[in-house]
Q: What sequence folds into this?
């Protein structure tokens, strides 16, 4: 069975924006869509009336509203919906294991952003085995129709294969270009050793080295998607700042997240964190080794 694009719904404007994006994506990819709402009855020892049936009906109403939205937007799109009796993080991570991708809404509060489910969204992004797309509730005009799919590339071709593959597939179904961005910084040794800089220049220089690394990482994906235009962007600076600057006007930003566990648990990573907090367009976070 073809994996579905799964979207978490809670009835908020942000989650409905995620529903719209997920429905459009499923239509582009000709992939089934799955709407899920996590609701777990947990009676509290407090003196209030707790109507389990009314809450269950409200949970179903959230999905009916989302389903009507999908049907109105894409009448021929196949989709299913389900109320999951589980906590939000557990439910969404369980869905992620069998989905093509998971889509969540996000909201902004001044210069800082929270996710659709508060810290829950961040936990899902940090632990999901499949790509997670974060979508803001913004006017349609805020995400240009003709924008590029911008992707951050770092490390070796093997390190970035999953991330680039997601970006190229997203660009292909949209008829868009891929703008591949590689940020680099001067190794500390060069800052303290002018002689080392001279040796680097004799070897071709650091900029040609970074440009060559990006070309090599893109090569197999250019071959696989020959109709997708590619723009290469190599710039010295912090990964988050360079990527966000390049993503101005993008229709989708794709970043990677290493799946290796740190001593303090799963983490999103600084570049993905910056993208999720500051990019105006949808952000796809793709896990990779």
A:
């Amino acid at each position: 069975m073809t994996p579905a694009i799964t979207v978490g719904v809670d009835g908020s404007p942000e989650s409905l924006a995620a529903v719209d994006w997920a429905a459009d994506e499923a239509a582009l990819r000709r992939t089934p869509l799955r709407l899920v709402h996590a609701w777990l009855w947990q009676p509290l020892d407090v003196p209030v009336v707790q109507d389990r049936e009314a809450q269950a009906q409200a949970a179903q109403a959230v999905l009916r509203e989302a389903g009507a939205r999908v049907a109105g937007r894409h009448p021929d799109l196949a989709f299913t919906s389900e109320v999951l009796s589980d906590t939000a993080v557990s439910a969404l991570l369980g869905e992620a294991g069998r989905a093509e991708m998971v889509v969540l809404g996000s909201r902004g509060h001044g210069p800082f952003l929270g996710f659709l489910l508060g810290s829950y969204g961040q936990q899902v992004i940090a632990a999901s085995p499949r790509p997670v797309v974060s979508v803001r509730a913004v006017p349609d005009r805020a995400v240009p129709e003709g924008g590029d799919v911008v992707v951050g590339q770092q490390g070796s071709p093997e390190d970035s294969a999953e991330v680039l593959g997601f970006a190229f597939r997203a660009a292909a179904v949209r008829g868009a270009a891929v703008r591949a961005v590689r940020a680099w910084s001067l190794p500390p040794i060069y800052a303290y050793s002018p002689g080392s800089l001279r040796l680097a220049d004799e070897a071709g220089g650091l900029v040609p080295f970074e440009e060559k690394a990006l070309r090599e990482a893109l090569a197999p994906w250019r071959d696989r998607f020959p109709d997708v235009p590619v723009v290469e962007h190599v710039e010295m600076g912090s990964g988050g700042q360079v990527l966000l600057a390049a993503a101005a006007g993008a229709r989708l930003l794709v970043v990677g997240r290493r799946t290796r566990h740190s001593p303090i648990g799963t983490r999103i990573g600084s570049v993905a964190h910056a993208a999720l907090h500051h990019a105006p367009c949808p952000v796809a976070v793709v896990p990779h080794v």
